[in-house]
TrEMBL record:
Pfam families: MazG. Residues 41-114 form the NTP pyrophosphohydrolase MazG-like domain. It comes from Microbacterium aquimaris. InterPro entries: MazG-like_dom, NTP-PPase_MazG-like_N, NTP_PyrPHydrolase_MazG. This is MazG family protein.
């Protein structure tokens, strides 16, 4: 089979849409690769987690070439899931529907860019974002709805503690507060090391405390109602 023309061989290449080419490549792989044909959304999840982690590594310690490559690998996961979804017998949707939905949502959530609103500070931008999100998610009954419990425990703790503060549930401050992110990192590292020495599961311990905090948040919401709360 002949190879496709390169940029040097075909001046029309400048007119091609690279994202459309990537989607078409994904479709061809799904059609012709027996391994790919057997993969469904759930089976693809571990690869999504892995590629996300590799992109984080590249951002934090890699070169620009590595960041570009890992972004491509993560994009491939998006295209893969969209291609799987496009072949669903009951509710198909493809990458075009995904892209349109994303564009519509981002336009709604940036009224200071697209709809004449004014936001002069990051705080004002966040207010507009939260207002648009609250309108979209009006069927939610808790500020914790939509928060994934599959997040790593530390990231989940930060997310839930922020939601908790919004409903008046405070987490006690530590006895000794670090003065920098570097000191915070050292403290967290020492706590993890101490957990290992004692045979404790640091991840599980924090996740359990976050679940308890979530219970307190839902209890506070039940007493005060959800009017005016961040969604």
């Amino acid at each position: 089979m002949a190879l496709p023309p390169t940029r040097e061989d075909d001046p029309r290449d400048d007119l091609r849409d690279p994202l459309r080419d990537a989607a078409d490549t994904m479709r061809a792989v799904r059609d012709r690769c027996v391994w790919t044909q057997r993969i469904d959304h759930r089976a693809l999840v571990p690869y999504l987690v892995e590629e996300s982690a590799e992109l984080i590594d590249a951002i934090e310690a890699g070169s620009r070439a590595e960041v570009r490559e890992e972004l491509g690998d993560l994009l491939w996961q998006v295209l893969f899931h969209a291609e799987i979804a496009s072949r669903d017998a009951e509710d198909p949707f493809g990458i075009d529907e995904v892209a349109r939905g994303l564009t519509d949502k981002m336009v709604r959530r940036h009224p200071h860019v697209f709809a004449g609103e004014t936001a002069r500070t990051p705080e004002e931008v966040l207010e507009l974002w939260n207002a648009a999100k609250a309108e979209e998610k009006s069927d939610r009954t808790s500020v914790l709805d939509g928060v994934s419990e599959r997040m790593p425990a530390l990231a989940l703790a930060q997310k839930v503690s922020g939601k908790a503060r919004g409903v008046g549930v405070e987490v006690p401050a530590p006895v000794s507060m670090p003065d920098s992110e570097e000191e915070l990192g050292e403290l967290l590292l020492s706590l993890a090391a101490e957990a290992r020495r004692r045979g404790w599961d640091a991840e599980g311990a924090l996740r359990a405390r976050v679940r308890g905090l979530g219970d307190r948040v839902r209890a506070a919401e039940g007493g005060a109602g959800l009017a005016g709360l961040e969604q």
